[in-house]
Amino acid sequence: MSRRFFTAMEWRKAFAALPEGERERRQKLADRFVQTFGDKPFGLFSAPGRTEIGGNHTDHENGCVLAAAVNLDTIAAVAENGSTMIRLHSDGYRPCLVDLSNLSAPIQEKNTTNALIRGVAAAFAKRGAKVRGFDMVMTSNVLPGSGLSSSAAVEVLLGVVMNTLFFGGKATPVEIAQIGQFAENVYFGKPSGLMDQTASSVGGLVTIDFADTKNPIVKPVAFDFAKTGYHLCILDSGASHANLTGEYTAIVSELRAVCKVFGKTVLGEVPEADFWARLPEVRAACGDRAALRAMHIYADNARVKQQVAALEQGDFDAFLALVRESGQSSLNLLQNVTPSGATAHQELALTIALGEKLLGKRGACRVHGGGFAGTAQAFVPDDLLTDFVQKTEAVLGKGHCHVLSIRQDGGIQL
User: Fold this and answer.
1) Whole-angstrom Cα distance, residue 394 to residue 386?
2) Is the pLDDT of residue 177 over 90?
3) Which pTM was predicted?
């Protein structure tokens, strides 16, 4: 067993050096583990949320993205229990119980945390790991529905736990991300891309090329946002993602229709020059919105490479200009800001307009993540931050502007 498995009393001494808020958070987790599973040695694990910085909806088209781990995470206290059962208790949710004697994908478990647990365990078992039962207490400050990928953080966390306990740490961060995506796609039943899990698992600021989804090219970007004089803010529009599945599905289905014109399945397989050469045919077969959405994917995919170049050259103004371009492209071409037919309720569009008004020609504000609801992302100059937070929250509500920083660690054992 790892030397980093300690009793609650031993952990209390280790927590003493932490900032007060994090010290209290971890101590509560340790206390809950003891209350739930008894006073035995346990390990602590962490996986961060992530933010999409460039490449809006490009990942599922085998394109490029720019993403980063953030300083909000899901943490867990874990110990083996000598059985075939995984027992997970998470704040605010019903306990999960998964029997490892059955690693199939039961239909009745779709869209549940049990499905993610079983899927991650099955993926490690396929790689030769002898997965055994363990007890786990989990808590998270990754905001659900925020576009910061709380679900990916859970998947990565489970992957890091099983990699540490049962696989000798042999799985790389990218492989752990792929395991999480497998669990989400096959067991949970959500056809997600790989960006969320990769950004959470790898950590830091990374660019990812998904041209080969089985072997994505992940490259760290050497840039320190903390030295720019800007803060990264996530603005919660207050709109729910409920009943928006059709909107997200329409983006993918319309892009698939465009690809079908060329006998392909994703835009990454269709040269942009071919798309423009056959645009009349695309319009006739798929409609104008599908064509516009394809234009966005091509443009935003190219923008990611330009953003990376700007950051590596230290040209933050050029980077911000590209962020603004991406936001306008999402609004006008991808059209993933306002749900179809919405009139009175356009929370995300209003949130972005508010951010742009407060920033003027300084900083940048854009849709964040899937769109239609949820959050916007803003880069805010230091001298405007206090005013920006106060004025956005005066409209959106207290606690709706989250000031974040980029975390260098991905999924880890603490």
Assistant:
1) 12
2) yes
3) 0.87
Quick one: which H or E segment has residue 139? strand 134-140
Q: 10 Å Cβ neighbour count for 410?
A: 23
The verdict on residue 178 lying in a domain is: yes
175: in domain: yes
The answer to whether 336 and 345 are in contact (CB under 8 A) is no
Asked whether residue 332 is assigned to any structural domain, the reply reads: no
Domain carrying residue 153: 8-221+409-413
Whole-angstrom distance between the N-terminal and C-terminal Cα of the chain?
14
pLDDT at 14: 93
Paired tokens of 76: 């867990």
How many degrees, rounded to 5, is the angle at CA 139 between CA 134 and CA 141?
150
CATH number at residue 162: 3.30.230.10
Which residues on adjacent β-strands are paired with residue 365?
378
Burial of 11 (0-12, 13-18, 19+ CB in 10 A): buried
- φ, ψ (nearest 5 deg) of residue 241: -80, -5
Kindly state whether residue 34 falls inside one of the protein's structural domains: yes
The number of domains in the chain is: 1
**Start-end of H helices in 278-315:** 279-286, 288-312
